[in-house]
Every structure is written in C-alpha cells, then in structure tokens.
Amino acid sequence: MKKLGTKYLLFLFLFFCSHVALAQPFKDAIDEFHRLDSIAMPKKGSILFVGSSSFTNWKDVQDYFPAYPIINRGFGGSTLLDVIRYADETIVQYAPKQIYIYCGENDIAADPSISADTVLSRFKILYSIIRKKLKKNTPIVYVSMKPSIARWKYENKIVEANVQIKQFIEMQKNILFLDVHSAMLNIDGMVKSDIFIEDQLHMNAKGYKIWQGIIAPTLIK
C-alpha cells in the first residue's frame, strides 16, 4: 500500500481539529503564554524551545545559555498533535531565528499501541507547518526523545522512533537531529539513575547539565 503523503496527513489532522469539541486541551497553558506575551512580548529573532514537559520544567533554561535570548514555550503533557494544534501560538508568532523541538515521548506513553511510523508522520506534519509558515531556511533542531526509568518499558519504541525521525531529518535542509538519548545511558546501556527527580521521568539539574553540553554547540548567535 502506498504511504500517505505529508500533505494528506496534514489535511486529515486539520479535518479532525475542525470537528473536535469546543473544550480544548492545554487551554490554560496557552492562555498563560498569551498573558506573558501581553506583559512583555518576546523579541522576534530569539531562540525558541517548544514541546513537552522536559522543556516546560526547564524553568531556568536562560541561565544555562546566558548569551542567547531564549523563549520557552514547552507545555507539559503535550504530544506532537498538541504542538501541531498550537503551532501558531507557540511557534509561528515569535518568528524565531532557531527552533528546538522536544516532543514525541508523550505520544508513545499516551497510546502504547502507537507505532514509530505514526510518531514520524506526526513530526512530518509539524515540520511541514513550520516550513510553510516561517522562513524556509529557519534552522530547526529536533532534540531526541530521552530514556527514563519511569518509561523504560517504552524504550525500544522510543529508540525506533528516534531512528526514523533522524533518518527523515538527514534528508532535509536546515534541520538537525540532536542525540541526547545516548548521553543519558550508562556504559551498560541502562538509563542513568541519578539524573531524575522523584517521579523518575523528569530531569533534575544533573540531567539538564547533560543537555546543556549537547545543545550549547548548536545554538546560533
């Protein structure tokens, strides 16, 4: 069977969005972004971090990269579908000079039956939206899905989805796949146990220090 094209997948997603109930998920988070923007709209041409809770919880991300203007628009619990839904509010309106995306892990955790192919298809939709609505050469960095103790049962699928997204990215221009996954594993291939807070899912400062070392060389002045 012929694979569905990205444009058709985007059409299906937009069709779905037009028929969902009026109550929208993450409305409070998006409203809070609106409130913050009304107080002080971030400067266009900043570096945008968008995606799920690994970015949301990085409250002091600016302190890790003091020489760069960072906008953090991660909203906890979000899937790729949610970032797609709110792409205008969390990405497009800021006209960033560089975009970092961390998302996909919640897609797998929310629906264990989901395939790596589906995660890739969702990422392709988000990628096509960014390319359509922002400058074609806007640099994008996809931060790989991380391993964690709490979600170790999904590790094989996370690795598979990471591989598929990386392969897609390698065929595109002005986008980079950034592997944080490998750096969060011990030499025996098991996830490090001292880089998470009590929930064994979200990172502590030691975990973010690993990310800092990997992200820093890729930031654009």
Please provide a written account of the structure:
This protein is an alpha/beta fold. It contains ten helices and five strands. It has a five-stranded parallel beta sheet. α1 packs across α8 and α8 packs parallel to α9 (155-169). The radius of gyration is 17 Å and the shape is globular. The model is unreliable at 18-22 (pLDDT under 50).
Name of the CATH architecture: 3-Layer(aba) Sandwich
CATH superfamily: SGNH hydrolase
Flag low-confidence runs: 18-22
Global shape? globular
Q: How would you characterize the largest beta sheet?
A: 5 strands, parallel
Q: Record the strand order, biggest sheet.
A: 2-1-3-4-5
CATH class: Alpha Beta
Helix-and-strand structural type: alpha/beta
Number of domains: 1
Number of helices: 10
Q: How helical, in percent, are the residues?
A: 40-55%
Order of helices and strands: HHEHHEHHEHHEHEH
CATH topology: Rossmann fold
First-last Cα distance: 45 Å
Total number of beta strands: 5
- Average pLDDT works out at 92
Residue fraction in strands: 5-15%
Radius of gyration: 17 Å
